[in-house]
Amino acid sequence: xxxxxxxxxxxxxxxxxxxxxxxxxxxxxxxxxxxxxxxxxxxxxxxxxxxxxxxxxxxxxxxxxxxxxxxxxxxxxxxxxxxxxxxxxxxxxxxxxxxxxxxxxxxxxxxxxxxxxxxxxxxxxxxxxxxxxxxxxxxxxxxxxxxxxxxxxxxxxxxxxxxxxxxxxxxxxxxxxxxxxxxxxxxxxxxxxxxxxxxxxxxxxxxxxxxxxxxxxxxxxxxxxxxxxxxxxx
Length: 234
Known about the structure:
By secondary structure, the chain is of the alpha/beta class.
């Protein structure tokens, strides 16, 4: 009897764990910023966005009062975070600026004029009730021989319904509120990249000048040799 009861309890617990309805999946879907800006990028390939491990794992992460970063297998992103972040960021930049920004790999026959790379250092719902998105982005022009624009970003978005400093090991706000804050942060990042703006210092490089010693130039034409008369020996 006890064995049967134990088996029934285990089966119910397993059914609860495997119940797909118990898992919440939230979209990475930033709204297009309402402002329109000039097209500063033309055609650009956006490399896969680099995310911290906790942000790329698929679970929605948050910071608790003890400073730890925690997550829950019941609250997930609806897509792979790096893929969703990259695709929606490219779309937001394009929509607000008119530029043709496409996530890699580049699908068109004509190559892009520029390449954009985003390296995220922090993407986290913090214990102070804000969502923090920080890192650095790079814009490279193929003809320049390397990155010709680099700038940092540090975006903080208040999380709706957040309880700063509370909640113990629970998230500071409902997962849907954290997702909404992240989407707002991505939209702000799209605006900064589209305008080549942001709070950090700008690093610019130009086409490198080659040392004349290593510059390949055509050799000057050969001068004609003077005519030489060959007299018969006598």
